[in-house]
Amino acid sequence: MAKSTKIEVDMRVNRIARLLANGAVRSEIVQYCAKEWEVAERQTDTYIAKARELIRADWETDRLTFTAEILAQLATLQKEARKQNNLNAALGCIKTAAQIAQVIQ
Asked: What are the tens digits of pLDDT across the range 10-26?
C-alpha cells in the first residue's frame, strides 16, 4: 500500500478529531480507520495522537477568545434579565461573569 500524502494524513487527523469530539473511543476509531482507510492499529494510534494535539491547540489558542465570547453572552443575558425584571437571573449572570473573569471565586 502506498504511503499517504500530507493532504490525506491531515484529512484523516481532522476526521479523527471530529470522531473524538463526538465521543468516539479508541476501539471505535481503530475499527473506523481499518474499514475506511485500511490503516493498521499502530498508524491509527499515531493519527489519534495528532488529532488530540489538534484539539488541544484549538482550545489553547482560542481560550482568550472563548472567554471573551462567554462574557459577552453573559452580558447580553444579564441585560435581558434586567429588562424582564428578573433580578435573580441578572445577578446570576454577573456572578458567573465575575467567576470566569476570576474577579471572585
From this structure: 999 999 999 999 999 99
CB 74 within 8 A of CB 104: no
CA 88 to chain CA centroid, Å, is 31
Cα(27)–Cα(17) distance, integer angstroms: 14
pLDDT of res. 65: 85
Burial grade of 55 (CB within 10 A; 0-12, 13-18, 19 or more)? middle
Ranges of each domain in the chain: 6-61, 63-100
CB-neighbour burial class of residue 76 (10 A; exposed 0-12, middle 13-18, buried 19+): exposed
End-to-end CA distance of the chain: 56
